[in-house]
Amino acid sequence: MTTAPLLTPVTGTLHALQVPIPYPMKYVTVLIDAPAHGPVTMIDTALDTPEARQAIEDGLAALGLHWEGIDRVIITHHHPDHYGLAGVVEERSGARVHMLDVEIGRGERYWHLWEEWLPGHLKFMRDHGLPAESLASMGADNRRGRDRVHPASAVQPLREGQSVELAGSEWEVLWLPGHADGHLGLWNEHESLLIAGDAILPRISPNVGLYAYTRPDPLGDYLQTLGKLELLNPDRAVVGHHGPVMTGVQARARELRAHHHERLDFIRAEVARRPGDAYALSLAMFPRDLNMSGRRFALAETLAHAEHLRLLGGVYRTWDETREVWVYHG
Ligand SMILES: [Zn+2]
Ligand SMILES: [Zn+2]
């Protein structure tokens, strides 16, 4: 049984398709632009599951297209729910796959050089207090997720400030780091319309995590991105989840900034009261019951906040020789 594809017209020939993903957000937005003349473009590709492939096929068919007709793929960021099918589209259609230049190396390291990178990743998490049982499951969890991701064999760079033609208009390439180091946005000034990916989301706070392979201050990056979005003040934004289209971006950016400042205040107060490693801080900041993968996200998010404070001089850290962990102090 096929159901009608969840296809929303965005502007002109550009459509947003809601594609199911096996995550709590339920759907990811895949954009399809099918102009009468000019390249057929797909923006983001979802994670490889039979349901996602079917939804994309149905969406393409509703626009009179099929996989083979795609000429160009643009990826907002390298996370599995956005990048998963990029290699499949590339193979089936010969489409050129594009990402922001900053993101290409990260995607490459994460998806192609995982085995090389994993030990450094594990050491980083252990140095910040992640318990042994969580470390042990981390490699296996990650390998499982990787079956659903087919990285592209060649990725072409897009650069901040460059212009891209889509739906008959010119869109400016934006760099919106924080949730991912090389997160790309596309800005149509004429229509005050932003393709935002996960840089801003209406219902959840986009995860901002520090890992061994990220830029050193992802929260600092993200606070700047929020400032940029506030100034840009788009009428509408196409978002990666809980969309496909949201309004009120400026107010949401302010709300998210206040949310991160609250967390920074929390950490400052917590370490002043009782020095601790980032994992202990993450248990205090996210006291609710989380599974192991949830706890790792919580650690990475806490670390992004703790390191942002440290780089600003608000807290400092020392190496505990006995426990072999970094301890944060106020
Ligand atoms: Zn993401
Ligand atoms: Zn996402």
Automatic annotation (TrEMBL):
Gene3D superfamilies linked: Ribonuclease Z/Hydroxyacylglutathione hydrolase-like, Winged helix-like DNA-binding domain superfamily/Winged helix DNA-binding domain
Coiled-coil features, chain-numbered ranges: none
Domain of life: Bacteria
Pfam families found in the cross-reference section: B_lactamase-like_C, Lactamase_B
Domain Metallo-beta-lactamase: 25-241
Name this polypeptide is given: Beta-lactamase-like protein
